[in-house]
């Protein structure tokens, strides 16, 4: 089996061949092809969004995606929900000695396809090889810059009591697919990660009445709502029956004792919108493939205890707290 | 989703709440104990405890398998992961429980502790990896012990030399009996566990019910099941006649699951068992029986004696018996929280303290 060795990261011929035969071949563009120390980009007049994220997912390949796709979508989505159209990404890889060449190729091709889908280019890159076990296979970092949308007024300070909360689709798909792939759980399901880029979706819905957006990744919807409640100061209330969850994901959660509200998503956004425009924005979302299951799930309250409440299906009320630690399958 | 949504119906829940309020109107204050940890979680998750009238109090019992597993067991399980050729397989819940110095979770990243959803998966792993000793942590009540028993039988049939069970299994009725006898607890009714009852059947509660004149209702885990069962208990208290009733009759039968009971009988034998926070309860534990000794991790793997330090300052013993609630504890939510649990009831997601913390801190 062809593998990546420490020599591939040493700056010599092997590294140059790898860059040419794998990275430039798949990810090449006028910026990257110059192989300079930095990409020189013409700037724009509008605001620029800039973000970074590191990806250490295990397993590297899972139903619906892999670490390559995830590393592009993650950064693209952070820019998109901040109200910017992603343009350029950087990509740094740290690979362990002995890593499979064909896996690296698969990951690179995923990065290529995800960039193409999102309409972004990788304009700067870095590749390092470290000794075996110094990293778990491969770690990827991507940074990205984006150009603010014309009519984006995303600002958490604009949130007011009465604002509606919309989720763009079913929750928990990504975490469920990772869980099934990671733990030795022998379930036969068709659950796939929702990993996908949201920038085109955001561009189709963005308007002044969207006050705030976030993609509920780690910690899930419940954690995102808590962060917003803490930052804005207002209580938030959501309805359990309103939150869209795929039947298969819900069944898995019921069996394992997991709460889908705390499970990560990689292709969903949550928007806080003016009450008067909520229905209109919801309709716009539903017209797009990424928002076909969108729903209004709750609203911002006037109380300022910084708490999130969940109205349960059976009529009870409970606090939806931040998650502590990791969810683990229960005994019985 | 079928079999779930019907039992969470808002309108029916409201109707039962109304009936509970009406019928409990003139009742002296009563304590009903939900014995099982899954009931505790459901009661908190659906916000049931706070919706009941003040004179109907639901108190949490000792039915969280992780909570009542003694710290020394955890310490020994961790010690097992330190043996070179051993991999420990466990249900997920157990991993977070802190031992004296560390937890199994920390061993997970070293590949020495793994999560499975069934003991059988551990046995299959053993079959494929004969150069490793696979130890399954047998934890839980009558819900899990039959599946572990079936797995041990499979291991015997396949003549596996590298599969072992470290049994911390417990049985429920002796603990309920202890609580029924305890005057301080003052239980006026038991919400009997759903899954445990599916195995042991209605008949197993007859002694407790008749012997101590305590109403028993076997309750399902969904909100409507729980509310309905509380109503049934109120009616029994009012009629002053204790009996065993089966609310969860879509699953639980009078004699239980006979095949599962036979499996337990064949593979395990009863012994005295230490319950974290409560102490040793006579005839409340299960160890592998003589015919299956080859699979007993305690007998077949050399383990050093481990010194375990006691839980200091925590009142889990009283919480597990329902004498106190987590809110009565000085450590609760301040020094003791799910990230840094002091005592048994905070460590498991089904523990009373963890449930209180998560849903109404």
Q: Main β-sheet of chain B: number of strands, strand sense, barrel status? A: 5 strands, parallel
Rg calc of chain B: 21 Å
Can you tell me the CATH class of the largest domain in chain B? Alpha Beta
CATH superfamily grouping of the largest domain in chain B: HypD, alpha/beta domain 2
Helix segment tally of chain A: 9
Low-pLDDT residue intervals, each spanning 5 or more residues of chain B: none
- Taken in chain order, the helices and strands of chain A follow as HHEEEHEHEEEHHEHEHEHEEE
Total domain count of chain A: 2
Q: Count of DSSP E strands of chain B?
A: 11
Q: Rough shape of chain B?
A: globular
* Counted beta strands of chain A: 13
Lateral strand order in the biggest sheet of chain A: 8-10-7-11-9-12-13
Helix content of chain B: 25-40%
Helical element count of chain B? Answer: 15
**Largest β sheet strand count, sense and barrel closure of chain A:** 7 strands, mixed
Helices and strands of chain B, in N-to-C order? HEHEHEHEHEHEHEHHEHEHEEHHHH
Task: Spell out the blueprint of helices and strands.
The complex is a heterodimer of chains A (332) and B (361).
Chain A: H1 13-27, H2 30-33, E1 48-55, E2 61-62, E3 65-66, H3 67-81, E4 84-96, H4 101-118, E5 121-130, E6 138-148, E7 164-167, H5 173-182, H6 199-205, E8 210-214, H7 220-232, E9 236-239, H8 247-256, E10 270-273, H9 278-287, E11 295-300, E12 308-311, E13 317-319
Parallel strand pairs in A: 4-5, 9-12
Antiparallel strand pairs in A: 1-6, 2-3, 4-6, 7-10, 7-11, 8-10, 9-11, 12-13
Chain B: H1 10-23, E1 30-36, H2 37-45, E2 56-63, H3 71-81, E3 86-90, H4 104-108, E4 113-115, H5 119-128, E5 133-138, H6 145-157, E6 163-167, H7 173-181, E7 189-192, H8 194-200, H9 206-212, E8 216-218, H10 223-239, E9 244-246, H11 258-267, E10 268-275, E11 279-288, H12 297-300, H13 316-320, H14 344-347, H15 352-360
Parallel strand pairs in B: 1-2, 1-7, 3-4, 3-5, 5-6, 7-8, 8-9
Antiparallel strand pairs in B: 10-11
Helix pairs in contact in B: 1-10, 2-15, 6-11
């Amino acid at each position: 089996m062809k593998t990546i060795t420490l020599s591939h990261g040493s700056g010599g011929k092997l590294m140059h061949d790898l860059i040419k035969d794998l990275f430039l071949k798949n990810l090449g563009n006028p910026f990257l092809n110059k192989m300079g120390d930095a990409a020189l980009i013409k700037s724009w007049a509008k605001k620029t969004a800039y973000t970074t994220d590191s990806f250490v997912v295990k397993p590297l390949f899972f139903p619906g995606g892999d670490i390559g796709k995830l590393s592009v979508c993650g950064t693209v989505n952070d820019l998109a929900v901040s109200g910017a159209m992603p343009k350029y990404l950087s990509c740094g890889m740290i690979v362990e000695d002995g890593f499979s060449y064909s896996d690296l190729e698969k990951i690179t091709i995923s990065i290529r396809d995800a960039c193409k889908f999102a309409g972004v280019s990788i304009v700067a890159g870095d590749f390092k090889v470290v000794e075996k076990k110094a990293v778990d296979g491969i770690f990827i970092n991507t940074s990205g810059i984006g150009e603010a949308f014309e009519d984006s007024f995303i600002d958490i300070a604009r949130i007011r009591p009465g604002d509606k909360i919309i989720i763009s689709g079913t929750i928990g798909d990504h975490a469920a697919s990772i869980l099934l792939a990671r733990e030795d759980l022998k379930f036969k399901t068709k659950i796939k990660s929702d990993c996908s880029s949201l920038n085109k979706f955001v561009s189709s819905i963005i308007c002044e009445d969207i006050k705030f957006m976030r993609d509920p990744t780690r910690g899930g919807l419940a954690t995102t709502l808590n962060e917003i409640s803490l930052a804005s100061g207002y209580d938030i209330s959501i309805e359990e029956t309103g939150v869209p969850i795929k039947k298969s994901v819900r069944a898995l959660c019921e069996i394992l004792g997991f709460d889908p509200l705390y499970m990560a998503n990689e292709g969903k956004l949550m928007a806080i919108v003016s009450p008067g425009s909520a229905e209109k924005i919801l309709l716009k979302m539903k017209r797009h493939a990424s928002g076909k299951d969108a729903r209004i799930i709750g609203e911002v309250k006037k109380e300022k205890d910084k708490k999130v409440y969940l109205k349960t299906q059976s009529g009870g009320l409970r606090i939806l707290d931040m998650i502590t630690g990791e969810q683990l399958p229960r005994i019985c | 989703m079928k079999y779930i949504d019907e039992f969470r119906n808002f309108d029916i829940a409201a109707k039962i709440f109304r009936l509970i309020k009406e019928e409990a109107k003139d009742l002296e204050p009563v304590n009903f104990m939900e014995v099982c940890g899954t009931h505790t979680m459901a009661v908190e998750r659906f916000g049931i405890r706070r919706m009941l009238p003040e004179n109907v109090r639901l108190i949490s019992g000792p039915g969280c398998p992780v909570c009542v597993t003694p710290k020394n067991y955890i310490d020994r399980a961790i010690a097992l992961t330190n043996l070179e050729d051993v991999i420990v397989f466990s249900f997920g819940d157990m991993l977070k429980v802190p031992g004296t110095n560390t937890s199994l979770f920390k061993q997970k990243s070293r590949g020495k502790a793994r999560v499975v959803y069934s003991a059988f998966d551990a046995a299959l792993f053993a079959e494929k990896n004969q150069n490793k000793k696979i130890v399954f942590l047998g934890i839980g009540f009558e819900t899990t012990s039959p599946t572990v028993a079936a797995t041990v039988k499979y291991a015997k049939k396949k003549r596996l030399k590298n599969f072992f069970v470290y049994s911390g299994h417990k049985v429920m009725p002796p603990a309920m009996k202890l609580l029924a006898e305890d005057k301080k607890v003052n239980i006026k009714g038991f919400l009997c566990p759903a899954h445990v009852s599916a195995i042991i059947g209605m008949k197993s509660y007859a002694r407790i019910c008749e012997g101590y004149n305590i109403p028993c209702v076997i309750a399902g885990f969904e909100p409507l099941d729980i509310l309905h069962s509380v109503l049934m208990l109120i009616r029994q208290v009012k009629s002053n006649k204790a009996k065993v009733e089966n609310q969860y009759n879509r699953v639980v039968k009078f004699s239980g699951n006979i095949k599962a009971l036979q499996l337990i009988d064949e593979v395990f034998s009863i012994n005295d068992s230490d319950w974290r926070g409560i102490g040793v309860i006579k005839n409340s534990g299960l160890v592998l029986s003589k015919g299956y000794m080859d699979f007993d991790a305690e007998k077949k793997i050399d383990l050093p004696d481990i010194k375990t330090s006691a839980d200091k300052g925590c009142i889990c013993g009283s919480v597990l018996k329902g004498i106190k609630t987590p809110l009565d504890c000085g450590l609760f939510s301040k020094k003791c929280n799910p990230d840094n649990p002091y005592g048994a009831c905070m460590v498991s997601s089904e523990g009373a303290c963890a449930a209180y913390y998560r849903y109404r801190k």
